[in-house]
UniProtKB/TrEMBL annotation:
This is DUF2029 domain-containing protein. Residues 1-23, 442-463 are annotated as: Disordered. InterPro entries: GT87, UCP010361. The keyword Transferase applies. It is a multi-pass membrane protein. Belongs to the glycosyltransferase 87 family. Pfam families: GT87. It comes from Vallicoccus soli. Residues 442-452 have a biased composition (Basic and acidic residues). Signal peptide: none annotated. One of its GO terms (molecular function) is hexosyltransferase activity. GO terms for cellular component: plasma membrane. It is found in: Cell membrane.
Amino acid sequence: MRRVRGNEEGAPDRVLPSREDPVARATSEVLGGPLGPRALAGVSAARALPVLLALTTLAMVLAVLVKQHCRTQGWDAPGQFVHLCYSDLPSLFFFRDIGSGAVPYLSDVPPDAVVEYPVLTGLVMWVTALLVPGSGETAERALTYFDVNVVGLAACALVLVWATAVTARRRPWDALLVAVSPSLVLAATVNWDLWAVALLALSMLAWARERPVLAGVLLGLATAAKFYPLLVLGPLLVLCLRAGLLRTWWRTLGAAVLAWLAVNVPVALAAPEEWARFYLFSRERGAGFSSVWYVMYQQGVGVPTVSALNLLATGLLVACCAGVAWLAVAAPRRPRLAQLAFLVVAAFLLTNKVYSPQYVLWLLPLAALARPVWRDHLVWTAGEVVHFVGIWLFLAGFPNDGDPDRALPEGPYGVTVLLHVAGTLWLVALVVRDVLHPEHDPVRASGDDDPHGGPLDGAPDRLVLGPARRAARARHAAPAVRP
């Protein structure tokens, strides 16, 4: 059987949101309306990238301006919460003794000063601290540490948007959903998550370019920065199983494991207890802010013990992943990689004990590739923005340094959590519908199969179940039509 790659015959070379998306078309009227046929002939991915990168730079400038109150007045409570400028970066600079010259995991520090992040993130925290001059716990050093890290995070944002645009192939403008997202502006400088997000985006680009070993190496490095990129191996497995490409998946898995071990083993051997801090902390912590579990706890219906919560959250995640696996092999048409990756990461966030506001960055590029529809992203982003305001105003009322008069009560805060969860569920439901009814998928409606799927793009099915098998039989039973 001849393998068909890329877009179907007769499909346009480039896809522009202003020509196919109603919301983008209406917005483009401010700039003169959608491009006409002559202008379209001059539009290419290479010409889209400078615009995308310029807008990303502007977004990161806005991300710094959002933190301007804290940059000038300091990161003190409750001001950092009331003015929505909280960031882990300057806080952990001192609380983890990095500002005092401690090397994460390796230096002798008090138990509460051990870095609770994976090794690659700890490495970033330490290297950027080396660039901060002076000594002592001063506001000037905290500001310098924040600004140094912002430069690195801005570079990650540029890499993220570039990789998303190139991965999208004929749809580079879908990366606008990342570059101009309010979620990027608000959450980019809360923590170091953009390092893992950018590495995962590069891994998906390498896979799309049919370089499975490089994709595995980048995926292993991403997992060494944050845990969640590891989840993408699941969708890759079931899609390769359906397409009969298990050998390719094994190569990616092997490269990912080796890359992760190369980063982690030296630290684990030198300081096993400190290295394990991240994994123990994840297991021992209770329901965290912004999760459904925390709202349940506020309402007095929480899970009684941490071990029971771990078991329940893990069970729900396994059930969701089993559902995604069934979609992968039973959908009438093989799902796209970005669709399943988005569903798995969203399932992890929705069932996890913690759903911090910066975790929206994990979903942002996956959502842009899985469901590039502006209306749906606006609905999802609205819930995230409301929650971003809600979480900091809620924390402004905590005891000791809090200000109850300017804080958000528990009830309204719980509503903001439910709104950002509902927005994620909204996008999940639409992606599932696209998988079950491919005619609704905007990427496939424009003539592509799986432009992000690399070796999966246009590959024939080898293993199908349920509805997929019936759909295949119907196609084979259809009478041939002579031209």
